[in-house]
Design a protein that fits this description.
By secondary structure, this protein is α/β, with parallel strands linked by helices. It is 43% helix and 14% strand. The chain has a single domain, classed as Rossmann fold (3-Layer(aba) Sandwich), CATH 3.40.50. The protein has 7 helices and 6 strands; from the N terminus they run E-H-E-H-E-H-E-H-E-H-E-H-H. 37% of the residues are buried.
Length: 223
């Protein structure tokens, strides 16, 4: 990557290697954004970056990072500071679910879900938001779920994390009104991504009969 500061606006997308994050990366690149692609899978990110550069003639930067690590948000923002990259659009998309009885579930999985879906999202927002407020310009998209609106038995922790994302986003939107920075919550239903496979939910009726592809048109007004 060229060491000089890019002239294009910068969008950071977490969970960019697949699903909704992948689609959002394409949409933002198509609109001329320099995309910062964040996820664990370097190979998938490199392939996506190559696609974006080829199709839209814009810069795409790969940042391999495990957002399940408690220090990931701090380390990610330090990397941005070293590279002198100021984020104009933050997409907090990374997240995962788990299907099963809560009492029988293992704690490491639930703890990792809480870290990725809530803690890293909140900390990354808190670390990047002050820069946006200083510039009086910026956009943050937090990806929730239709599970944000109601408890979901057998996905108790996942739905609770997404309820948090929606509540957090609505509160911030009120706090930031008139200050040049917008907060938006995207709450999709069952979509054709890798979510169901990781959550062990492929056989459920919700995903078995879902035919909603991962396409995002018309594009939300905030972009």
């Amino acid at each position: 990557m060229n060491s000089s500061a890019p002239t294009a606006p910068i969008a950071l997308i977490t969970g960019a290697s697949g699903g909704i994050g992948y689609a959002l990366s394409h949409e933002l690149a198509q609109r001329g954004y320099h995309t910062l692609l964040v996820a664990r899978s370097t190979d998938k990110l490199e392939a996506l970056a190559k696609e974006l550069r080829s199709q839209y003639k814009t810069e795409a930067t790969v940042i391999a990072c495990d957002l399940g690590a408690p220090t990931s948000a701090v380390e990610l923002v330090k990397h941005l500071q070293v590279k002198k990259l100021a984020v104009d659009v933050l997409v907090n998309n990374a997240g995962f679910g788990y299907l099963g009885d809560f009492a029988a579930s293992d704690w490491p999985t639930q703890a990792s879900m809480l870290q990725v879906n809530i803690s890293t999202l909140v900390q990354l927002t808190q670390l990047i938001l002050p820069q946006m407020l200083e510039r009086k310009s910026g956009k943050i998209l937090n990806v929730g779920s239709t599970g944000s609106f109601s408890p979901v038995p057998t996905m108790a922790v996942y739905a609770a994390t997404k309820a948090f994302v929606l509540s957090f986003s609505e509160a911030l939107a009120s706090e930031l009104e008139g200050r040049g920075v917008t907060i938006t919550a995207l709450c999709p239903g069952a979509t054709q991504t890798g979510f169901a496979e990781r959550a062990n939910a492929e056989g459920t009726l919700l995903f078995k009969f879902s035919n909603l592809p991962c396409r995002l048109k018309p594009w939300p007004a905030w972009a």
